[in-house]
């Protein structure tokens, strides 16, 4: 699921040199060694943050490109439900590939669409597999031995020169019971099943490793200590070759202050441990808001409720943190709309200077029969996924110690309704002469790459020193990222 990532060369090495005893680092003490992406430093987590004063972290919500889905069911083999889009950019072919589930009453297929721009899609007639009625005039690329063929992930293989395995996939088949299979393809259309893996929700053994070649997060069952009923939580497994899986463990469970009716229907992130976004793994957690009064239970499981998407992040694929738990990353659509009942956001795709988020939308809530679903698209400006903002009128953010050479400081900031200034501090936390707030040329504009300057001094005068940056935000200023280049 690679996006068109703008390769940003960091001419100035940014290296954290002091740990901070916050919740994230207590969970993963070795996390300070994870930063490897040379791009901007985001504020999705506290990895680069020493102290926040008077500020809050706010998840930004993607903007829908249309009130209607960009892809809908229109053929007999698609039934009434299109869902779970998996999109990747193919640099070699210069095309977007989409794999999605299409569900009829009798079967679920994986179908294929392609696009030049990621917005307008075409479903080619492939002639590969028979659909309902026996005709092969369709866009089906996977039809399992059972009645289900659902792709979990499709990726361009980063670890082989074998043209026969250029594409890799993990998919579910019903043979009987839901079983995982590994598959490969030379072109993303003609697939060969390589191994029957089994149910990864029951994989145990092996010590989890940070950022393995492949990892999977999915639904698993936990047990409510209150009333004993089963509830949905999130399970993680990993693999070095996509065929043999180990290290199964629960990684996301309901917290004590969560709504007791909240469950985690599923979660997704990029399948590759090496595929980070600015040094982070972004994850999308599907919040299932169940109903105790209206919902029915079958074998102790709640079936009725809405589903929307929250944002989470990790530096190692093992320890995950929900970002801004009070605010949805992707809320439901308006009442009565095609996406009013449920949504499931797929991992981000980078397209130029924007982040594309493809998602499944459902008109009705979970548990309602004869539901309809389509595929939508929403976007955010590049790197503007989480902002730091004043809680009231002003606040300060101080970074951890940084060691750098010559270069300049740029910020991704919207300060049209406020002001941003930056100070440079020494190791003891004292403002360096000439680098105080009064000497900084304040920023009151909206810019993704605004250079920070001081009146009489330049950062290159501090080459080789260990310093901190202190960002001073006022009014409606929103700070998204900083970069030394």
Descriptive account of the structure:
- There is one protein chain.
- The chain has 485 residues and is mainly beta.
- It folds into 2 domains: 15-60 and 386-484, Sandwich (Jelly Rolls), CATH 2.60.120; 63-381, Glycosyl hydrolase domain, family 43 (Tachylectin-2, Chain A, 5 Propeller).
- The chain is built from 1 helix and 34 strands.
- The strands form 9 sheets. Strands 1, 3, 28, 29, 31 and 33 form a 6-stranded antiparallel sheet that branches.
- The chain is globular.
- It starts with 14 loop residues before the first strand and ends with a strand.
- The model is unreliable at 1-37 (pLDDT under 50).
Fourth CATH level, the homologous superfamily of the largest domain? Glycosyl hydrolase domain, family 43
Task: Tell me about the largest β-sheet.
Answer: 6 strands, antiparallel
Q: In total, how many beta strands?
A: 34
Residues in helices, as a percent range: under 10%
Low-confidence stretches: 1-37
Task: Tell me the CATH topology of the largest domain.
Answer: Tachylectin-2, Chain A
Strand content: 35-45%
Mean pLDDT over the residues: 87
Q: Could you say which structural class the secondary elements and strand pairing correspond to?
A: mainly beta
H/I helix tally: 1
CA-to-CA gap between the ends? 27 Å
The whole-angstrom Rg is 24 Å
Number of structural units classed as domains: 2
Looking at the structure, what is the overall shape? globular
CATH class of the largest domain: Mainly Beta
Which architecture of the largest domain per CATH? Answer: 5 Propeller
């Amino acid at each position: 699921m690679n996006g068109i990532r703008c390769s940003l060369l960091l001419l100035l090495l940014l290296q954290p040199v002091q740990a901070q005893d916050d919740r994230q680092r207590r969970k993963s003490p070795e996390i300070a060694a994870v930063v490897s992406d040379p791009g901007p430093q985001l504020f999705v987590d506290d990895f680069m943050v020493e102290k926040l004063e008077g500020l809050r972290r706010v998840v930004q919500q993607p903007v829908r490109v249309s009130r209607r889905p960009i892809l809908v069911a229109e053929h007999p083999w698609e039934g009434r439900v299109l869902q779970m889009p998996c999109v990747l950019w193919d640099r070699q072919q210069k095309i977007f590939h989409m794999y999605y589930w299409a569900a009829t009453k009798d079967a679920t297929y994986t179908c294929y669409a392609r696009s030049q721009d990621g917005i307008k899609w075409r479903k080619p007639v492939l002639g590969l597999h028979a659909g309902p009625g026996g005709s092969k005039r369709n866009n089906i690329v996977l039809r399992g031995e059972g009645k289900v063929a659902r792709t979990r992930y499709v990726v361009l293989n980063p670890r082989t020169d074998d043209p026969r395995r250029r594409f890799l996939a993990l998919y579910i088949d019903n043979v009987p019971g839901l079983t995982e299979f590994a598959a490969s393809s030379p072109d993303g259309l003609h697939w060969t099943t390589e191994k029957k893996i089994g149910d990864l929700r029951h994989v145990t053994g092996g010590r989890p490793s940070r950022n393995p070649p492949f990892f999977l997060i999915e639904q698993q069952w936990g047990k409510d200590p209150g009333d004993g009923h089963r509830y949905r939580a999130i399970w993680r497994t990993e693999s070095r070759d996509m065929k043999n899986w180990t290290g199964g463990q629960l990684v996301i469970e309901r917290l004590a202050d969560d709504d007791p009716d909240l469950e985690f229907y599923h979660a997704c992130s990029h399948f590759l441990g090496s595929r980070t976004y600015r040094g982070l793994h972004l994850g999308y957690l599907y919040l299932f808001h169940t109903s105790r009064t209206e919902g029915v239970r079958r074998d102790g499981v709640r079936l009725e409720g809405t589903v929307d998407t929250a944002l989470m992040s990790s530096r190692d694929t093992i320890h995950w943190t929900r970002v801004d738990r009070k605010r949805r990353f992707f809320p439901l659509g308006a009442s009565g709309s095609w996406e009013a009942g449920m949504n499931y956001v797929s991992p981000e795709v980078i397209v130029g200077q924007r982040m594309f988020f493809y998602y499944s939308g459902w008109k009705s809530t979970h548990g309602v029969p004869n539901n309809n679903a389509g595929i939508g698209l929403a976007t955010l400006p590049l790197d503007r996924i989480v902002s730091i903002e004043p809680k009231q009128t002003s606040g300060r953010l101080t970074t951890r110690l940084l060691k750098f050479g010559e270069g300049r400081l740029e910020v991704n900031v919207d300060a049209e309704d406020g002001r941003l200034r930056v100070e440079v501090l020494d190791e003891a936390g004292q403002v360096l002469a000439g680098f105080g707030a009064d000497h900084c040329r304040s920023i009151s504009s909206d810019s993704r790459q605004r250079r920070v300057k001081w009146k009489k001094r330049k950062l290159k005068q501090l080459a080789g020193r260990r310093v901190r940056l202190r960002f001073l935000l006022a009014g409606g200023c929103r700070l998204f990222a900083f970069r030394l280049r």
